[in-house]
Amino acid sequence: MISRFRWVSIAALALLTAASACLAAEPAAGKTAGDPGASPANDATSATGQAPAAPNAPERRGDHPGYGGISGQFGLGRIGGYQDYSQWAQLRMSFSANWRYTFSDSWRGQVSPGFVWAGYAKTSNPAPFVDLNHPTDPYKDDWLTLVVPISTQMQWVRRGRTFTWHVGAGPGLYRVWVENHRKVVKDPRTYIHHRGLYWGGTAEIGAEHFFKGLASTSIEMTLDMHYVNAKRDDQFPSGYNSALRGAGLRVGATYYFNLHHAPENKSAPLPGTTKH
Fold first, then answer.
1. Per the domain annotation, does 25 fall within a domain?
2. C-alpha closest to that of 77 among 263, 268, 246
3. Residue 122: inside a domain, yes or no?
4. Would 152 be classed as within a structural domain?
5. What are the pLDDT digits (tens) for 58-92?
6. CA–CA distance, 276 with 188 (Å, rounded to integer)
7. What domain count does the chain have?
8. Closest CA to 116 of 140, 137, 86, 139
9. How far is Cα 230 from Cα 76, in angstroms, rounded to an integer?
10. Rounded-to-integer distance, Cα 143 and Cα 185, Å
11. What is the CATH number of the domain that holds 78?
């Protein structure tokens, strides 16, 4: 099982290393590249005895407290974990949409619906039980596991001037079902369709890069992992009855916008309308 998720560990390490390197390379806010630092006290006042005007700090790109954000991402996903869900599973596409709200410079919340699924190697591997819809096909070649996660997270954010990365975790609700030849399978002992809604949890690491002319839009890469307690002994005793894990590595765009109310228009009254 470790070998099945080796690519996830490598991707997480690469993402974290790149984020740390980019943040370390960026000058601190309020300084320009090559500035050796603040001048000593003898430069704090001008010849007239007045303190010079402070240089304008560069505009911070991305979200601020009170901002919302939306994003769409796509990439690769894998269903892993234990027993029938992961045995002979292969990489497939995965998708995610995110809605964010920024509480402070370091913390924000996120709600993420998504989709990840697994097909199985077409090498005539035996299925865990006979599908009642296709009793003459004993193989797993056309079976699918499909997962729709709806997860919530609290994310800790570290910011640079053009580069931001985050880590987050939280609970999730997961819709899981199993198909064969595009039909939901039934357990042969209980005759219950193999689908259900389960609780689980998620963890995520991500990095964003903001371009000079797009202060509110970023290109983002994320790596997330999910744990789903998809086990129901009373409904699915014949197979596909264990916890499962899902992982996705995706790329997309994120747009941030101000959710504060627009300031009231306090323009001067028209001539002749002033009350006496």
1. no
2. 246
3. yes
4. yes
5. 567 788 999 999 999 999 999 987 789 999 999 99
6. 87
7. 1
8. 86
9. 22
10. 9
11. 2.40.160.20
